[in-house]
Design a protein that fits this description.
238 residues; mainly alpha; binds protoporphyrin IX containing FE
Length: 238
């Protein structure tokens, strides 16, 4: 295993880690967006989906821990590569002649850290329920096996959250940053993996920006739909 540790410590090894973890995180985003778009199908669809995800706590925690490990690997490797980049050029030029590549990697670190800040707020809001406990506490009455009970009302929690312009605005800003991050990140994956061919390069160059726009715009529809009144709270929920 020591050869693996050695390879990962090199710059190309680090870039490979960034590419693989980036692809896994992008797949998570596609799945998460697909689940969230159920908002347009209404309360039953969203709450059934949330209940389904939590039906097997062992599996849920295995996936959560896997996601956390991938995420930490992505962030730590990014910071390590950025620090190595800096160390390789300890004396700053009197006049900064930043080339396109360093400009892009700086933007990646900045947008990445801002998306991380958004993610911490997002988890505090929807998963832990500390920023708006009154949204997180909403329950929906259901019958299970002939017995009346309640379940987490994820649909109403999302709608209540996005009815607040400040929350929706924050999400919108974060989605723009996420889009910028994904656009360059996905394009870099092709470079790292050496995927290029004169014939297909014009198409390959568009994959990153197109993917980024689809993901960012897809997520953006959710706060927008609530804020502009297309999706509303169910009757009886205030
Ligand atoms: C409009 C955009 C988004 C909406 C409406 C949304 C909605 C949600 C909801 C409702 C939950 C909690 C599910 C539950 O506990 O039942 C959640 C969890 C989560 N979201 Fe999002 N999300 C959005 C964007 C994002 C983005 C862009 C990311 C990543 C950068 C992200 C990452 C996560 C993660 C990591 C969790 C925790 C999953 C878990 O509980 O295991 N979300 N999201």
């Amino acid at each position: 295993m020591s050869w693996l540790a050695q390879v990962l410590k090199t710059s190309i090894g680090g870039k490979l880690v960034m590419a693989i973890t980036g692809v896994l995180l992008s797949l998570f985003l596609v799945g998460h967006l697909a689940g969230n778009l159920l908002l347009f199908r209404g309360r039953e669809a969203v709450n059934d989906y949330a209940e389904f995800l939590k039906a097997s706590p062992a599996l849920l925690w295995a996936v959560r821990l896997g996601l956390l490990a991938v995420f930490l690997l992505h962030v730590i490797t990014a910071l390590r590569l950025a620090a190595a980049n800096r160390a390789a050029r300890p004396v700053r030029y009197a006049k900064e002649h930043t080339n396109v590549a360093t400009q892009a990697s700086r933007t990646m670190v900045l947008t990445g850290l801002l998306v991380l800040a958004y993610l911490l707020f997002h988890l505090a809001h929807f998963t832990v329920g500390v920023t708006h406990p009154e949204h997180h506490a909403l329950r929906e009455a259901v019958v299970r096996g002939g017995v009346a009970t309640t379940r987490h009302d994820v649909f109403s929690m999302m709608v209540k959250g996005f009815q607040q312009p400040l929350v929706s605005g924050l999400y919108a800003a974060a989605m723009v940053l996420l889009g910028l991050h994904l656009s360059h990140g996905v394009s870099s994956v092709f470079q790292t993996l050496g995927l290029n061919h004169p014939r297909y390069n014009p198409i390959l160059r568009r994959v990153g920006p197109v993917f980024a726009i689809l993901i960012a715009a897809g997520f953006l529809t959710l706060p927008a739909a609530v804020l502009f009144g297309f999706v509303q709270l169910p009757a009886g929920v205030q």
